Amino acid sequence: MERLTKELLISKLNEIIKISKEAIPGESWSEKNYLYELPRKWELSRIIIKNDKILGYIDSFWLRNLQDFCEKFNSQCEIL
Hints:
Blueprint (H helix, E strand, L loop, with lengths): L1 E2 L2 H18 L7 H5 L5 H4 L1 E5 L2 E6 L1 H13 L8
């Protein structure tokens, strides 16, 4: 797992968009959505690449939602 930098995101954007469309049917983010700046976005976002293929990724938007979920339901979640 490595940090998902802005440069890496841009270079893999088409593949990331394709993965998102397959994972969440009906949900369609554009390049603008992925490049939207958020606090600590590039510090917290991660990607897993093996043999030049993306196996998974998570950005700070989803991490924040996971953290909110854990706090709401008093779950013990370990984020990064």
